Amino acid sequence: MPDPDWPLALHAVLAARGVTLASYVPDAGHAALIRAAEADPSMRTVALSTEEEGVALAAGAWIGGGRSVLLMQSSGVGNCLNMLSLIRTGRFPFLTLVTMRGEWGEFNPWQVPMSEATAPAFGLMGVQVHRVDRAEDAAPTVDAAAASAFEGGSAVAVLLAQRLIGSKSFGEAPK
Amino acid sequence: MSGATETRLDRRAVVARLLRDRGGTVVVSGLGSPSWDVAAPGDHPRNVYLWGAMGGCVAMALGLALAKPDVPVLAVTGDGEMMMGVGSLAVVAAQAPANLAIVVLDNGEYGETGAQRAHTAPNAPNRADLAALAAASGLRGARTVSTEAELEALAGEVPTTGAGPVFAAVSVAPGPAARGAIANALKDMGHGRVRTRLALGLSAV
């Protein structure tokens, strides 16, 4: 039986790794993690108007001594591409968690193009990609990614599979 | 509001005035002319120059301001860069960082790329008004600065540790900023991020 509380485990991992800033463009798959971050007095949440703001925010926060995470869905990765040149040029530590759409029981075809382009796009911009398909792998993978980012200075994305999140949470598919 | 008959301020002098009493302020400059303007009065380890990442200046400054609430942070950018990241004004308003000020040097054109007409072009009846955009985004004290007296008033508030977020769109003369001598190292963010961290008393990495 998969652990339905994996988003809470992700919050615990992020907190343990010293993340104090969580920026996001919301996604249903991130809702529980965002709620957990909002309920944590040691973590500040920042609602963005577009995902690339979170990339720039992460760079600024790091200069100020803060560790941050950017939460977004796969469609938002496309919005980030040029801003990721800031991460690469500055060799900033960077951590993002991406909920995947468009790959498992997706009812909205508009989610498919960026879904298929998400991992290649990160690769083109020099961001390492890890992928989580099973709930039990979520926390260890995010912990490893956070270690790579904040101890190793890497830019790392963790893709949280749509199958993991559950496509049913996105509303009823037409019969 | 600026108009064709007004003498518009000199961008280099505006920035020099605002940085004169900067104290421990960290300055994040938007790509192109604002980075030249911020470097001109003298390089500083608390200057963070962007030469790319268009649209990200305010968001980057916000990240710094949230991570270091006891340090004044000043974003200096241009009108084109600001328009590309205009949504970040609402993000700043929602976060309400008291230590952040945003100054947009508004020359109404894309001065770096051949003076193409920008959305804030001063003589257009349908021009975009950055101060109004900022105010409507929740930065209620947002204002336009177009005279020396208004600049002096702004200099009394910028940099700020307690009265922010401050937003001002400063009407400056058209054209790009003059170039200066700038070391290649100052274009290297990998170097810049480390030296600013060290200046803030943080570890290098």
The radius of gyration of chain B is 16 Å
User: How many beta strands in the DSSP annotation of chain B?
Assistant: 8
Q: How would the global form of chain A be characterised?
A: globular
How much is the average pLDDT of chain A? 94
Strand share of the residues of chain B? 15-25%
**Structure classification of chain B:** alpha/beta
Average pLDDT of chain B: 93
Order of helices and strands of chain B: HEHEHEHHEEEHEHEH
The oligomeric status of these chains comes to heterodimer
Major β-sheet strand ordering of chain B: 2-1-3-4-8-7
The coarse silhouette of chain B is globular
Spans where pLDDT lies below 50 across 5 or more residues of chain A: none
Please estimate the helix content of chain B. Answer: 25-40%
Q: Distance N terminus to C terminus of chain A? A: 28 Å
Evaluate the radius of gyration of chain A: 15 Å
Biggest sheet of chain B: strands, sense, closure? 6 strands, parallel
Give the total of beta strands of chain A.
6
Can you give keywords for this protein?
heterodimer, A: 175 residues, alpha/beta, six-stranded parallel beta sheet, 6 strands, 44% helix, B: alpha/beta, two-stranded antiparallel ribbon, 8 helices, globular
Q: How would you describe the overall organization of this protein?
A:
The complex is a heterodimer of chains A (175) and B (205). With 175 residues, chain A is an alpha/beta fold. Chain A is 44% helix and 19% strand. Chain A contains eight helices and six strands; from the N terminus they run H-E-H-E-H-E-H-H-E-H-E-H-E-H. Chain A has a six-stranded parallel beta sheet with strand order 2-1-3-4-6-5, sandwiched between helices. The model of chain A has no long low-confidence stretch (mean pLDDT 94). Chain B is of the alpha/beta class. Helices cover 33% and strands 16% of the residues of chain B. Chain B contains eight helices and eight strands; from the N terminus they run αβαβαβααβββαβαβα. In chain B, the strands form two sheets. Chain B has a six-stranded parallel beta sheet with strand order 2-1-3-4-8-7, with helices on both faces. Chain B has a two-stranded antiparallel sheet with strand order 5-6. In chain B, helix 7 links the parallel strand 7 and strand 8. Chain B is globular. At the A-B interface, strand 2, helix 3 and helix 5 of A face helix 3, helix 5 and helix 8 of B.
